[in-house]
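Exercise 7b. Backbone tokens:
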């Protein structure tokens, strides 16, 4: 989780997904919108909102203007619980824990032959996500082995960001993305590094 000051950065719209750092269920998300942007934005989808049902067009009031159809109430409740957990635990405490594990992971990866690590190596400038590749293996095969042999879930491919991969030089094959969360432990990192060492020897 990164603390973002909406006004300090003069943002008009800030969109977020609920199922990643906010600990909500998949299929949740939202956006913040400034009055300036709202004045010129039109809803992408028109449909029932449960309010002003007698009107033919989407209501102009917030949030109904952008919420067509039946809301995912269970998902929203789950997202609320995730955000409440983050607020109760504290962003700094979560960041400190994830940074400690991230440093451990990066240092361990540097000791493995045939590994390519993408992005900055300064933990203070990173979120708890690391993209890697093995020089000798396609990333999809690498992620498959992590999953099938070691029970480690990692995402392979272009991660819905082909231009980012062009920038770092991993296009068109992509990379393997490892994500660290607040509930991961030092043992998880040791186990993951051990698995990668074994795969790198193949």
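Sequence design result:
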């Amino acid at each position: 989780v990164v603390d973002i000051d909406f006004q300090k950065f003069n943002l008009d719209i800030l969109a977020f997904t609920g199922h990643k750092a906010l600990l909500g269920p998949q299929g949740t998300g939202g956006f913040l919108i400034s009055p300036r942007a709202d004045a010129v934005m039109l809803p992408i989808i028109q449909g029932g909102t449960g309010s002003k049902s007698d009107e033919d067009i989407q209501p102009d009031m917030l949030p109904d203007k952008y919420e067509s159809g039946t809301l995912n109430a269970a998902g929203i409740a789950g997202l609320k619980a995730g955000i409440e957990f983050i607020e109760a635990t504290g962003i700094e405490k979560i960041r400190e824990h994830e940074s400690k594990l991230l440093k451990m992971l990066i240092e361990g990866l540097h000791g493995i032959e045939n590994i390519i690590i993408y992005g900055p190596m300064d933990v203070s400038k990173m979120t708890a996500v690391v993209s890697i590749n093995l020089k000798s293996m396609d990333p999809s095969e690498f992620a498959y082995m992590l999953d099938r042999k070691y029970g480690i879930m990692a995402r392979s491919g272009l991660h819905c960001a082909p231009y980012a991969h062009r920038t770092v030089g991993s296009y068109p094959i992509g990379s393997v993305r490892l994500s660290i969360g607040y509930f991961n432990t030092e043992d998880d990192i040791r186990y993951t590094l051990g698995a990668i060492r074994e795969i790198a020897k193949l």
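Instructor comment: Residues 13-89 form one domain. The chain has two domains: 13-89, 91-200.
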